[in-house]
Design a protein that fits this description.
5-stranded mixed sheet, two-stranded antiparallel ribbon, alpha+beta, disordered N terminus, 180 residues, 32% strand, YceD
Amino acid sequence: MAAEEIRSNRIRTAELTGNRKRSFKIRPGKPGLAALAAELGLQAIKDLTFKGDLMPAGRDDVALEGQIEADVVQSCVVTLAPVPARIKAPVRRLYISGMAYPEADEAEMPEDDTREPLPDAIDLDAVLIEALALALPDYPRAAGAETLVLEALPPGAEPIEEEKVKPFAALAALKAKLEK
């Protein structure tokens, strides 16, 4: 997203006091949509809305509950033709006070991947980008796109037939030969 948009959607956690929830709604403009589409490798993002609430959770923690809605255009994995998609996904995060990221080179992923350490400021643009990236279809296919079947053969070689590759094909051929 454009740099000016990213800075404007950071909310300091110190501002989230009391039992009041703070609502937000983010709708990037055309430059922001174009920059985000380029960052995520999309052909286009036609519309994008991220709305929700930040609210206290317990004594020192903060919860984010929201919804992301987007109209995107991806490339077909077979033909590279444009594939439009409508994204509508819930977004949940729980920012825990005193929680730290593991400092080891390798660490196990926790079962609850919505829990994160409580930062000084919650970057709603980063949450939006992550939520959109995770909600995109992994392998978009255009209508009518056929699966490609490729064979690489040395000159003069015959293609391998599926029946000949099966484990018991040789035994079946031997049995047929012995029965003659």
